[in-house]
Design a protein that fits this description.
It is built from 15 helices and 14 strands. By secondary structure, it is an alpha+beta fold. The strands form four sheets. A five-stranded mixed sheet has the order 10-11-12-13-14, covered by helices on one side. A four-stranded mixed sheet has the order 1-8-9-7. A three-stranded antiparallel sheet has the order 2-4-3. Helix 10 packs across helix 11 and helix 10 packs across helix 12. It starts with a strand and ends with a helix. The relative contact order is 0.13.
Length: 401
């Protein structure tokens, strides 16, 4: 196996590992296709923004095409067909059920007051009695929304404006003492794991913290194909010192192969099962929370693509728009588009569109137009409209005619 990779090779390794292998995204997508991709990615990050679609829906669409969101909902939140669970991984995420034992070390740390989120740790200590009352309430009453918690108060102040009841439920969620039973829209309903996670999964032995972190690092490296220590650690937000120890073991065992990558200052690691394909990629719009781009520094190293989400930037200071999705075409990111699903009008609006300096405007516009039309169909929207903003806007309007 090569000790060095060109940046083009590294891009293709990463794209192939993430499931971008020029899949025909016009074919019918079954649950088997979806399940296989979920296992490849290991997680789907959740986010509340619904300008286009909730973020956990988009990665499967980007790789497979127009699939049934209802099917994913059934597998993520349904009582009969559930094969996924929700926990803190790379932020709040949906994971395949078989990974539940690998996440218990993080829950155990939170119960011991040494979790990832120090604010929750502190709340759990300061409000120990109240948190216990909330757990008892959920245990007695079953699926619970934050507004039903006695003594929870109104949503004001606190993290993200959370109420005291919401803080208690999120602390219990962090500790693994409650989990997501389902969602009402985007509102989480909490219940105890024994009524949500299948009994055979709960009965699986939990590996030691050391073994769990090693296994998660292996999964992260498989999902990345190639990456730096920080890349591999970030996928599951693993602790620094424990990750470095696991990394050394995986290198010693030949699971990870140290490589240098053209233009990278950091040491990189290639998973021993990773392929170095002659071609990889496709044409797809990517969620801001897609694993290909969620680590902005990695996106810059792989694609020379500078990307920042501008939702919280005041409108006059935004460079590209409110909710901007990168456009992958072949093995490069060639542009970006500020999208809004105007459900009332039945229109997918490309409010601003830009091509990258290296990209051909006409080819980029044609690729984006086709992708917008495919996405509009998936979202149940009847039309696509391109706004006047951006250096690709005129070419995109021409391509959509």
């Amino acid at each position: 196996m090569a000790g060095s990779l060109s940046i083009a090779q590294a891009r293709r390794v990463a794209l192939a590992a993430q499931g971008f292998s020029f899949t025909d995204r016009t074919k019918k997508v079954t649950w088997a296709h979806m399940a296989s991709m979920v296992r490849r990615l290991n997680l789907l990050q959740i986010d509340s923004v619904n300008v286009v679609a909730r973020s956990h829906y988009l990665p499967l669409y980007s790789r497979l095409g127009a699939y049934s969101q209802q099917t994913l909902d059934e597998r993520a939140f349904g009582q009969k067909k559930r094969t996924m669970f929700e926990c803190w991984a790379h932020e709040a995420s949906l994971l395949p059920m078989e990974l539940h034992p690998l996440m218990r070390w993080r829950m155990a740390r939170a119960r011991a007051g040494n979790g990832t989120y120090k604010s929750m740790d502190q709340f759990g200590k300061d409000e120990r009695s109240y948190v216990k009352q909330v757990l008892d309430f959920v245990t007695r009453n079953g699926p619970t929304v934050a507004g039903e918690v006695p003594g929870g108060g109104k949503a004001e102040g606190g993290w993200w404006g959370w109420s005291k009841g919401k803080l208690a439920l999120e602390t219990l969620f962090d500790q693994g003492l409650v989990t997501t039973a389902s969602r009402n829209g985007f509102e989480r309903l909490y219940d105890i794991p024994e009524r949500v996670i299948p009994a055979d999964v709960l009965a699986l032995p939990a590996p030691s913290e050391k073994d769990a972190i090693r296994q998660l690092l292996d999964l992260s490296a498989r999902a990345h194909g190639v990456g730096t220590e920080i890349d591999l650690r970030d996928y599951f937000r693993l602790p620094i010192q424990e990750t470095r120890a696991a990394l050394a073991e995986l290198v010693a065992d030949g699971v990870l192969i140290p490589v240098t990558i053209e233009g990278w200052k950091q040491q990189a690691y290639l998973h021993h099962d990773a392929k170095i394909p002659r071609k990889a990629g496709g044409t797809a719009l990517l969620s801001p929370f897609d694993p290909m781009v969620w680590a902005r520094s990695r996106a810059e190293r792989l694609f020379a693509f500078h990307y920042r989400i501008e939702i919280y930037t005041p409108a006059p200071k935004r460079q590209f728009g409110y909710y901007v999705l990168p456009l992958l075409h072949h093995d490069r990111i060639v542009g970006r588009v500020c999208l809004k699903a105007d459900r009332q009008s039945g229109v997918l609006r490309a409010n601003a569109s830009h091509h990258e300096a290296h990209a051909d405007p006409a080819e980029t516009a044609a690729a984006l137009a086709g992708e917008l039309q495919l996405m509009a169909g998936w979202l149940g929207l009847g039309d696509v409209a391109a706004g006047p903003s951006g250096n690709l806007a005129r070419s995109l309007r021409n391509a959509l005619r």
